[in-house]
Amino acid sequence: MRKLSERELKSVQKAIAQREITAAELLMEVYDHYIIHLEGFPEEHFEEQLNALNEKWTYSYCKKLQHDLSKNINKSVRKTQWGLIKSYFSWPKMVFTLIFIGGITLLVNLITHKMQLMILFGLPIVYLTAFLVFVLFRTHKKIKPIKKTFQDTELKISSIFSNQFIVFISLPLHFYNFFLNVPRIFGMDKLIPEYLLNYLSITFCFIIYLHCISAYEAWKIKSKTALL
Amino acid sequence: MSNSNLIKGSLQTIILKLLEENEKMYGYEITQKVKELTAGEIKITEGALYPALHKLEAEGLLTTEIQQVDNRVRKYYSLTKDGQKEVSSKLAELQAFVENMQRIINPGLKPELGF
Protein backbone atom coordinates (compact mmCIF):
# COMPACT_ATOMS: atom_id res chain seq x y z
CA MET A 1 0.00 0.00 0.00
CA ARG A 2 1.35 3.40 -0.95
CA LYS A 3 0.24 6.89 0.00
CA LEU A 4 -1.31 9.00 -2.76
CA SER A 5 0.47 12.22 -3.69
CA GLU A 6 -1.18 15.65 -3.30
CA ARG A 7 -1.73 15.82 -7.06
CA GLU A 8 -3.41 12.40 -7.05
CA LEU A 9 -5.61 13.35 -4.09
CA LYS A 10 -6.71 16.49 -5.94
CA SER A 11 -7.60 14.35 -8.99
CA VAL A 12 -9.71 12.07 -6.80
CA GLN A 13 -11.49 15.03 -5.19
CA LYS A 14 -12.16 16.54 -8.61
CA ALA A 15 -13.52 13.24 -9.95
CA ILE A 16 -15.86 12.82 -6.98
CA ALA A 17 -16.98 16.46 -7.13
CA GLN A 18 -18.11 15.86 -10.72
CA ARG A 19 -20.60 13.32 -9.34
CA GLU A 20 -22.19 16.18 -7.38
CA ILE A 21 -22.53 14.25 -4.14
CA THR A 22 -23.54 16.80 -1.52
CA ALA A 23 -24.39 14.48 1.36
CA ALA A 24 -21.46 14.44 3.79
CA GLU A 25 -22.41 10.90 4.89
CA LEU A 26 -21.98 9.58 1.37
CA LEU A 27 -19.14 11.81 0.32
CA MET A 28 -16.81 10.56 3.05
CA GLU A 29 -17.65 6.96 2.22
CA VAL A 30 -17.07 7.34 -1.53
CA TYR A 31 -13.84 9.29 -0.98
CA ASP A 32 -12.49 6.65 1.41
CA HIS A 33 -13.46 3.91 -1.07
CA TYR A 34 -11.60 5.66 -3.92
CA ILE A 35 -8.47 6.27 -1.82
CA ILE A 36 -8.13 2.74 -0.41
CA HIS A 37 -8.64 1.24 -3.86
CA LEU A 38 -6.11 3.55 -5.52
CA GLU A 39 -3.55 3.07 -2.76
CA GLY A 40 -3.41 -0.60 -3.71
CA PHE A 41 -1.97 0.19 -7.16
CA PRO A 42 1.37 1.65 -8.28
CA GLU A 43 1.57 5.24 -9.52
CA GLU A 44 1.63 4.28 -13.20
CA HIS A 45 -1.78 2.63 -12.90
CA PHE A 46 -3.38 5.59 -11.10
CA GLU A 47 -5.21 7.14 -14.09
CA GLU A 48 -6.42 3.78 -15.36
CA GLN A 49 -7.77 2.77 -11.93
CA LEU A 50 -9.34 6.18 -11.34
CA ASN A 51 -11.19 5.83 -14.65
CA ALA A 52 -12.31 2.33 -13.66
CA LEU A 53 -13.72 3.72 -10.41
CA ASN A 54 -15.41 6.58 -12.25
CA GLU A 55 -17.12 4.06 -14.50
CA LYS A 56 -18.50 2.24 -11.46
CA TRP A 57 -19.49 5.38 -9.55
CA THR A 58 -21.40 7.06 -12.35
CA TYR A 59 -23.24 10.36 -11.92
CA SER A 60 -26.67 8.68 -12.02
CA TYR A 61 -25.61 5.92 -9.64
CA CYS A 62 -24.32 8.46 -7.11
CA LYS A 63 -27.51 10.52 -7.39
CA LYS A 64 -29.65 7.42 -6.81
CA LEU A 65 -27.47 6.35 -3.89
CA GLN A 66 -27.83 9.80 -2.34
CA HIS A 67 -31.60 9.78 -2.86
CA ASP A 68 -31.95 6.31 -1.32
CA LEU A 69 -29.69 7.27 1.57
CA SER A 70 -31.87 10.28 2.26
CA LYS A 71 -34.96 8.06 2.28
CA ASN A 72 -33.29 5.55 4.60
CA ILE A 73 -32.14 8.25 7.00
CA ASN A 74 -35.62 9.77 7.06
CA LYS A 75 -37.01 6.32 7.85
CA SER A 76 -34.43 5.81 10.57
CA VAL A 77 -35.11 9.18 12.27
CA ARG A 78 -38.89 8.61 12.11
CA LYS A 79 -38.52 5.06 13.46
CA THR A 80 -36.37 6.22 16.38
CA GLN A 81 -38.66 9.09 17.34
CA TRP A 82 -41.83 7.05 16.94
CA GLY A 83 -40.33 4.30 19.13
CA LEU A 84 -39.59 6.90 21.80
CA ILE A 85 -43.09 8.43 21.57
CA LYS A 86 -44.65 4.97 21.95
CA SER A 87 -42.55 4.38 25.05
CA TYR A 88 -44.38 7.26 26.77
CA PHE A 89 -47.54 5.21 26.59
CA SER A 90 -46.08 2.13 28.22
CA TRP A 91 -45.19 1.38 31.83
CA PRO A 92 -43.36 3.02 33.73
CA LYS A 93 -43.22 6.18 31.58
CA MET A 94 -47.03 6.13 31.39
CA VAL A 95 -47.11 7.45 34.98
CA PHE A 96 -45.12 10.50 33.90
CA THR A 97 -47.40 11.01 30.86
CA LEU A 98 -50.57 10.89 33.00
CA ILE A 99 -49.14 13.27 35.61
CA PHE A 100 -48.06 15.60 32.82
CA ILE A 101 -51.52 15.63 31.17
CA GLY A 102 -53.11 16.20 34.58
CA GLY A 103 -50.73 19.08 35.23
CA ILE A 104 -51.43 20.91 32.00
CA THR A 105 -55.18 20.33 32.31
CA LEU A 106 -55.06 22.02 35.71
CA LEU A 107 -52.89 24.84 34.41
CA VAL A 108 -55.07 25.50 31.35
CA ASN A 109 -58.15 25.87 33.55
CA LEU A 110 -56.38 28.33 35.83
CA ILE A 111 -54.75 30.72 33.37
CA THR A 112 -56.03 33.02 30.62
CA HIS A 113 -55.80 32.18 26.93
CA LYS A 114 -52.97 34.69 26.44
CA MET A 115 -50.96 33.12 29.25
CA GLN A 116 -51.68 29.66 27.81
CA LEU A 117 -50.10 30.72 24.54
CA MET A 118 -47.07 32.14 26.31
CA ILE A 119 -46.39 29.31 28.73
CA LEU A 120 -47.68 26.24 26.94
CA PHE A 121 -46.63 27.09 23.39
CA GLY A 122 -44.10 29.88 23.69
CA LEU A 123 -41.69 27.96 25.92
CA PRO A 124 -41.44 24.83 23.73
CA ILE A 125 -41.06 26.99 20.63
CA VAL A 126 -38.16 28.88 22.26
CA TYR A 127 -36.65 25.55 23.36
CA LEU A 128 -36.98 24.03 19.86
CA THR A 129 -35.45 27.12 18.23
CA ALA A 130 -32.46 26.96 20.60
CA PHE A 131 -32.17 23.21 20.00
CA LEU A 132 -32.25 23.83 16.25
CA VAL A 133 -29.34 26.31 16.51
CA PHE A 134 -27.43 23.83 18.68
CA VAL A 135 -27.93 20.98 16.17
CA LEU A 136 -26.82 23.24 13.30
CA PHE A 137 -23.67 24.21 15.21
CA ARG A 138 -22.84 20.58 16.09
CA THR A 139 -23.38 19.48 12.48
CA HIS A 140 -21.18 22.28 11.20
CA LYS A 141 -18.41 21.12 13.57
CA LYS A 142 -18.80 17.47 12.58
CA ILE A 143 -18.74 17.96 8.82
CA LYS A 144 -15.91 20.50 8.92
CA PRO A 145 -13.17 17.92 8.06
CA ILE A 146 -15.19 16.72 5.04
CA LYS A 147 -15.79 20.30 3.88
CA LYS A 148 -12.09 21.02 4.30
CA THR A 149 -11.15 18.06 2.09
CA PHE A 150 -13.42 19.31 -0.69
CA GLN A 151 -12.81 23.03 -0.16
CA ASP A 152 -11.40 23.47 -3.67
CA THR A 153 -14.59 22.20 -5.25
CA GLU A 154 -17.90 24.01 -5.51
CA LEU A 155 -19.85 21.35 -3.65
CA LYS A 156 -22.42 22.55 -1.11
CA ILE A 157 -21.87 19.83 1.46
CA SER A 158 -24.45 19.16 4.14
CA SER A 159 -25.45 16.33 6.42
CA ILE A 160 -28.61 14.49 5.34
CA PHE A 161 -29.07 13.32 8.91
CA SER A 162 -28.99 16.87 10.16
CA ASN A 163 -31.32 18.11 7.40
CA GLN A 164 -33.88 15.42 8.14
CA PHE A 165 -33.61 16.01 11.85
CA ILE A 166 -34.08 19.75 11.47
CA VAL A 167 -37.30 19.10 9.53
CA PHE A 168 -38.53 17.02 12.45
CA ILE A 169 -37.53 19.60 15.06
CA SER A 170 -39.20 22.45 13.20
CA LEU A 171 -42.44 20.51 12.69
CA PRO A 172 -44.28 22.16 15.65
CA LEU A 173 -43.47 25.61 14.23
CA HIS A 174 -45.54 24.80 11.13
CA PHE A 175 -48.10 23.06 13.32
CA TYR A 176 -48.38 26.17 15.50
CA ASN A 177 -48.97 28.40 12.48
CA PHE A 178 -51.49 26.08 10.91
CA PHE A 179 -53.67 25.47 13.94
CA LEU A 180 -53.39 28.76 15.76
CA ASN A 181 -52.73 31.46 13.19
CA VAL A 182 -54.67 30.26 10.15
CA PRO A 183 -58.06 30.23 12.02
CA ARG A 184 -57.29 33.79 13.21
CA ILE A 185 -56.69 35.00 9.65
CA PHE A 186 -60.14 33.75 8.61
CA GLY A 187 -61.76 35.02 11.82
CA MET A 188 -62.62 31.49 12.85
CA ASP A 189 -61.03 31.73 16.28
CA LYS A 190 -64.13 33.44 17.64
CA LEU A 191 -66.29 30.54 16.52
CA ILE A 192 -64.52 28.10 18.83
CA PRO A 193 -66.07 28.06 22.32
CA GLU A 194 -63.79 28.68 25.31
CA TYR A 195 -64.12 25.15 26.79
CA LEU A 196 -63.17 23.57 23.43
CA LEU A 197 -60.25 25.95 23.12
CA ASN A 198 -58.99 24.67 26.47
CA TYR A 199 -59.17 21.05 25.36
CA LEU A 200 -57.42 21.93 22.11
CA SER A 201 -54.74 23.74 24.10
CA ILE A 202 -54.16 20.67 26.27
CA THR A 203 -53.94 18.37 23.25
CA PHE A 204 -51.61 20.60 21.23
CA CYS A 205 -49.46 21.37 24.22
CA PHE A 206 -49.13 17.67 25.05
CA ILE A 207 -48.14 16.85 21.45
CA ILE A 208 -45.58 19.68 21.32
CA TYR A 209 -43.98 18.72 24.66
CA LEU A 210 -43.88 15.07 23.65
CA HIS A 211 -42.23 16.12 20.41
CA CYS A 212 -39.65 18.24 22.32
CA ILE A 213 -38.71 15.41 24.67
CA SER A 214 -38.63 12.68 22.01
CA ALA A 215 -36.67 14.89 19.58
CA TYR A 216 -34.01 15.45 22.23
CA GLU A 217 -33.87 11.74 23.10
CA ALA A 218 -33.67 10.80 19.40
CA TRP A 219 -30.86 13.30 18.95
CA LYS A 220 -29.01 11.79 21.93
CA ILE A 221 -29.21 8.32 20.31
CA LYS A 222 -28.42 9.37 16.75
CA SER A 223 -25.70 11.92 17.49
CA LYS A 224 -23.45 9.14 18.81
CA THR A 225 -23.00 7.76 15.31
CA ALA A 226 -24.39 10.27 12.80
CA LEU A 227 -23.12 13.61 11.50
CA LEU A 228 -25.56 15.36 13.81
CA MET B 1 -20.10 -16.97 -14.38
CA SER B 2 -22.52 -14.11 -13.87
CA ASN B 3 -23.54 -14.72 -10.31
CA SER B 4 -24.72 -11.20 -9.44
CA ASN B 5 -28.40 -12.22 -9.41
CA LEU B 6 -27.65 -15.15 -7.11
CA ILE B 7 -25.62 -12.94 -4.75
CA LYS B 8 -28.22 -10.17 -4.68
CA GLY B 9 -30.65 -12.19 -2.58
CA SER B 10 -28.01 -13.22 -0.07
CA LEU B 11 -26.08 -9.96 0.19
CA GLN B 12 -27.63 -8.88 3.48
CA THR B 13 -26.83 -12.29 5.01
CA ILE B 14 -23.23 -12.07 3.75
CA ILE B 15 -22.82 -8.60 5.31
CA LEU B 16 -24.37 -9.63 8.62
CA LYS B 17 -22.26 -12.79 8.82
CA LEU B 18 -19.02 -10.94 8.06
CA LEU B 19 -19.79 -8.31 10.67
CA GLU B 20 -20.59 -10.98 13.22
CA GLU B 21 -17.10 -12.39 12.73
CA ASN B 22 -15.18 -9.13 12.34
CA GLU B 23 -16.83 -6.79 14.84
CA LYS B 24 -16.53 -3.69 12.62
CA MET B 25 -15.75 -3.22 8.93
CA TYR B 26 -15.89 -0.48 6.28
CA GLY B 27 -17.44 -0.82 2.83
CA TYR B 28 -14.29 -1.47 0.80
CA GLU B 29 -13.06 -3.96 3.40
CA ILE B 30 -16.27 -6.00 2.99
CA THR B 31 -15.82 -6.25 -0.79
CA GLN B 32 -12.19 -7.36 -0.34
CA LYS B 33 -13.02 -9.88 2.39
CA VAL B 34 -15.67 -11.55 0.21
CA LYS B 35 -13.23 -11.62 -2.70
CA GLU B 36 -10.57 -13.18 -0.47
CA LEU B 37 -12.85 -15.79 1.11
CA THR B 38 -14.20 -16.95 -2.25
CA ALA B 39 -10.84 -16.74 -4.07
CA GLY B 40 -12.26 -14.03 -6.34
CA GLU B 41 -15.30 -16.10 -7.37
CA ILE B 42 -17.74 -13.70 -5.74
CA LYS B 43 -17.26 -10.00 -6.30
CA ILE B 44 -19.60 -7.66 -4.50
CA THR B 45 -20.11 -4.52 -6.52
CA GLU B 46 -20.28 -1.06 -4.99
CA GLY B 47 -23.63 -0.70 -6.72
CA ALA B 48 -25.09 -3.41 -4.52
CA LEU B 49 -23.04 -3.10 -1.35
CA TYR B 50 -23.62 0.49 -0.26
CA PRO B 51 -27.42 0.52 -0.74
CA ALA B 52 -27.57 -2.73 1.26
CA LEU B 53 -25.43 -1.26 4.06
CA HIS B 54 -27.53 1.91 4.20
CA LYS B 55 -30.75 -0.12 4.26
CA LEU B 56 -29.51 -2.36 7.09
CA GLU B 57 -28.48 0.74 9.03
CA ALA B 58 -31.92 2.31 8.55
CA GLU B 59 -33.56 -0.92 9.71
CA GLY B 60 -31.54 -0.69 12.91
CA LEU B 61 -29.53 -3.86 12.26
CA LEU B 62 -26.25 -1.98 11.78
CA THR B 63 -24.73 0.96 13.53
CA THR B 64 -21.91 3.20 12.31
CA GLU B 65 -18.83 4.75 13.77
CA ILE B 66 -16.75 7.49 12.19
CA GLN B 67 -12.98 7.44 12.57
CA GLN B 68 -10.28 9.77 11.34
CA VAL B 69 -7.81 7.88 9.11
CA ASP B 70 -4.95 9.66 7.28
CA ASN B 71 -6.61 13.07 6.89
CA ARG B 72 -9.95 11.59 5.91
CA VAL B 73 -12.92 10.08 7.69
CA ARG B 74 -13.84 6.43 7.52
CA LYS B 75 -17.25 4.96 8.24
CA TYR B 76 -17.20 1.63 10.07
CA TYR B 77 -20.24 -0.61 10.28
CA SER B 78 -20.98 -2.98 13.14
CA LEU B 79 -23.94 -5.06 14.30
CA THR B 80 -26.51 -3.70 16.71
CA LYS B 81 -28.19 -6.01 19.25
CA ASP B 82 -31.05 -6.50 16.78
CA GLY B 83 -28.51 -7.21 14.06
CA GLN B 84 -26.84 -9.88 16.18
CA LYS B 85 -30.21 -11.59 16.66
CA GLU B 86 -30.95 -11.32 12.95
CA VAL B 87 -27.73 -13.09 11.86
CA SER B 88 -28.80 -16.54 13.01
CA SER B 89 -32.28 -16.29 11.51
CA LYS B 90 -30.89 -15.02 8.18
CA LEU B 91 -28.31 -17.83 8.12
CA ALA B 92 -30.95 -20.46 8.89
CA GLU B 93 -33.08 -19.03 6.10
CA LEU B 94 -30.18 -19.18 3.64
CA GLN B 95 -29.19 -22.68 4.77
CA ALA B 96 -32.73 -23.95 4.22
CA PHE B 97 -32.75 -22.34 0.77
CA VAL B 98 -29.41 -23.92 -0.22
CA GLU B 99 -30.58 -27.33 1.02
CA ASN B 100 -33.77 -27.04 -1.00
CA MET B 101 -31.77 -26.03 -4.07
CA GLN B 102 -29.57 -29.09 -3.56
CA ARG B 103 -32.67 -31.28 -3.44
CA ILE B 104 -33.84 -29.81 -6.73
CA ILE B 105 -30.46 -30.06 -8.47
CA ASN B 106 -29.50 -33.48 -7.04
CA PRO B 107 -32.71 -35.26 -6.03
CA GLY B 108 -30.77 -38.33 -4.81
CA LEU B 109 -28.43 -36.32 -2.58
CA LYS B 110 -29.14 -35.62 1.09
CA PRO B 111 -27.32 -32.36 1.86
CA GLU B 112 -25.77 -31.76 5.24
CA LEU B 113 -24.63 -28.20 5.14
CA GLY B 114 -23.41 -26.20 8.04
CA PHE B 115 -22.74 -22.50 8.39
What is this structure, in a nutshell?
Chain A is mainly α and 228 residues long.
CATH-derived topology of chain B: Arc Repressor Mutant, subunit A
Task: Report the portion of residues of chain B in β strands.
Answer: 15-25%
Mean pLDDT of chain A, to the nearest integer, reads 86
- Number of domain modules of chain A: 1
List keywords for this structure.
heterodimer; A: mainly alpha; 9 helices; B: 115 residues; alpha+beta; Arc Repressor Mutant, subunit A; 5 helices; WH_DNA-bd_sf (chain B); DNA-binding (chain B); Tscrpt_reg_PadR_N (chain B)
Fold and architecture overview:
Chain A is mainly alpha-helical and 228 residues long. Chain A has one domain. Helices cover 78% and strands 0% of the residues of chain A. In chain A, α1 (6-17) crosses α2 (24-39), α4 (59-87) crosses α7 and α4 (59-87) packs across α9. The model of chain A has no long low-confidence stretch (mean pLDDT 86). Chain B has a single domain (4-105), classed as Orthogonal Bundle (Arc Repressor Mutant, subunit A), CATH 1.10.10.10. Chain B has a three-stranded antiparallel β-sheet with strand order 1-3-2. In chain B, α2 (11-22) packs across α5 (81-105). Classes of the chains: A mainly alpha (228), B alpha+beta (115). At the A-B interface, α2, α4 and α6 of A face α4, β2 and β3 of B.
What topology does this entry show?
The complex is a heterodimer of chains A (228) and B (115).
Chain A: H1 6-17, H2 24-39, H3 46-56, H4 59-87, H5 93-110, H6 113-149, H7 160-169, H8 171-185, H9 194-222
Chain B: H1 4-8, H2 11-22, E1 24-25, H3 27-37, H4 46-58, E2 62-69, E3 72-79, H5 81-105
Antiparallel strand pairs in B: 1-3, 2-3
